[in-house]
Design brief:
Blueprint lengths: L1 H4 L7 H10 L3 H10 L4 H17 L15
Helix pairs in contact: 2-4
Length: 71
Amino acid sequence: MMSRFASKMVPIEAAKADKFVRGLKLNLHGFVRVFRPTTHDDALHLIVDMSLHERADPSKTAGKGQPQDKR
């Protein structure tokens, strides 16, 4: 609705996508930049797909984060 009356205040879709990608962690940033998403939705889908893939195959992220048995 705001874009109807103040179009200069609402960034274009490509700018939103770029801002989203710039805010990602470095390992995700590089991955998403390769695909050059044109919309925020495209960038978000790439990240979600990557996250789901990593959860399905935890061996790829075995060296990242905290140890599982830390008490």
